Protein 1
Amino acid sequence: MSTTALKEVSPKSSDHVSPRWKQNAKPIQKFGTVIRSLPIGIDEKVRTEVCEQLNLMLADTSSLRDLYKKSHWQVGGPTFYQLHLLFDKHFGEQVELVDLLAERIQTLGGVSVAMAHDVAELTRLERPPRDREEVPVQISRVLEAHESIIQHARALAKRAQDLGDDGTNDLLISEVVRTNELQVWFISEHLVEMPLVHAK
């Protein structure tokens, strides 16, 4: 092949490695639906009900995750260092729960909620102000969020068990409930009045 021929082919061949980044298409699955036929032994109607509830829990857990990060950034006072680290640790554990819940929804053939504006529409947790609040108020907000999630998780776990969805039941009890209960213990102890030097 001549050098002239190579020069003529070269510009055209470069088109094959250019990213085709302005693409659009119809959704492959609508939010709120599940794949009709899925060989996991759970009926479509059951999967639809469970995915709807799991998406609510995912939205709440995503909100709690972000509440921990807000608290991590805005905490202050004598316990700043301890709470700054603890809030961030709990944030990381909530990140893991978000991923587990989203993957469970996808495993059941559903579509997991993902974007912040969609989470904001679905969550049942009270929206905190943009302002910086005192530490006891920050902790109280976190504890109220935990209580809401734990109550919902227990109810949904029972419902999933009744419907024969053992995987969801196991996820909720082994991961969601236990993680949230443990975090409640660590956080609530910061609201207990305890003498540091002299016993009463």
Note: The chain has a mean pLDDT of 93.
Protein 2
Amino acid sequence: MHRKQQNSNFKMEKIYDFKALTSKGKEIDFAQFKGKVLMIVNTASKCGFTPQFEGLEKLNQKYKDQGLVIIGFPSGDFANQELADGSKAEEFCQLNYGVTFQIMKKVHVNGNEADPIFKYLKSQTKGFLGSRIKWNFTKFLISKDGETIKRYSPTTAPEKISEDIEAML
């Protein structure tokens, strides 16, 4: 469930204005991440980039105690390369890559049905295809104050983002 617009003048201003469901259906209020560096990634379990889960988990282990929070949003938007739902995707990530960071409910990242969080992130950053997400494993790095948002292409290996993470921590 996402925070609804209260009136036509209300606009989502920061990542902290959103709520989303975990793979197990628990609501997470992103306001709890104020003061943390966030990395949001659209993931897929059956993609050529799926091995990036290993690099993402290494970043998680290296920086989580310093304030990095990684959140994966499974999506089948690209060649339907995701399992049936978020809980199956989470199980896959844990079994195959030892993932301990939060995996959310399966969402759409492009089009009219795109999750509001991805609509927001795309509106704040532009990629190769404009605001549209190009493929699985597009990464968004958000500063502690929610002001600075950097976007990384699917081909950017997670370990290549370490320097930017350290600068934001």
Note: The beta strands are 19-21, 27-29, 37-43, 68-74, 102-103, 139-142, 149-152.
